[in-house]
Amino acid sequence: MAASFTSESPRRAFAKAELNWYEQRWFTNSVTIGFALLILIKFVHSVFFMQNDFDGHLAMGSRALRGTFYGDNDAWQALFLQYPPGRILFDEFLSILPYYFVRALVFSAAIDSLFATRPIWRALAMDVKPAPSGVEFAASSCAFVLFAVWVVHDLDECGLQLLLLFMLSMAAWTLYRGARVQGGAWIALAISWKVTPWLFVPLLLWKRRFVEAGAAIGFVSATALKVRMMAEGNAAQKL
User: Which listed residue, 27, 107, 133, 207, has the most CB atoms within 10 A of its CB?
Assistant: First the structure.
């Protein structure tokens, strides 16, 4: 038994020496610890001390909940040009919750979505060019460093755009797997979060992905119609 252990040790040492520096454990641990510290610091700063766009969304949801915009058609149209109806509904829901709780909730959801997004990108990349796990982790780390300015800025806003990134990543994954209606639904959810993903609809039409484009348009239209009906109902109650 002792001889066997002695004979295997040089092999393990040689295999460890063959690893590139970015594949070794010290690099993985350092990146993981650094990322955890960043998230902890930004959580405390963004949730408890930062005044950001998240406050604007809470204020928008609070006004919509009281019927301020729903009762005033001109104000409603102005609000609609800023954000889609689905986002207004979401902001309404958030405005009901306690202030610090909802900020912590959305920040935590954004971090969870970031962890959920990484396996999607990994699976898509591995289909194009497979790589060892250490190389993949190093590539993900480098990508994070390259976009760190924008990621940290979004963490200052409680991670609202990271949630959008997750929606679009899920849309890419479902479209890649051939789930056509489901892919359109994810694009619709992204459009309901922010108007910019509308740009994917002409792309889908150009690519002759009519089912996906139709599903996205259908889901967004249904959401807008529902919100419009709610707005008209609240306006009628005011009269």
Answer: 107
CA pair distance 143, 151, nearest whole angstrom? 11
- Take residue 6 and report the two structure tokens written for it: 């002695």
**Under a CB-based contact definition with an 8 Å cutoff, are residues 160 and 190 in contact?**
no
The whole-angstrom separation of Cα 42 and Cα 140 is 20
Asked if residues 226 and 65 have their Cβ atoms less than 8 Å apart, the reply is: no
**Could you tell me the residue range of the domain that residue 122 belongs to?**
2-238
**Contacts by 150-155 with C-beta closer than 8 Å and gap 24+?**
152/38, 152/42, 154/110, 155/39, 155/42, 155/46, 155/107, 155/110
State the residue for tokens 């460890």. Answer: 16
Q: What pLDDT is recorded for position 189?
A: 92
Total domains, the chain = 1
Looking at per-residue confidence, does 2 or 98 come out higher? 98
| 26 backbone dihedrals φ, ψ, rounded to 5° | -60, -35
Task: Find out whether 46 and 107 touch, Cβ atoms under 8 Å.
Answer: yes
Predicted model pTM: 0.81
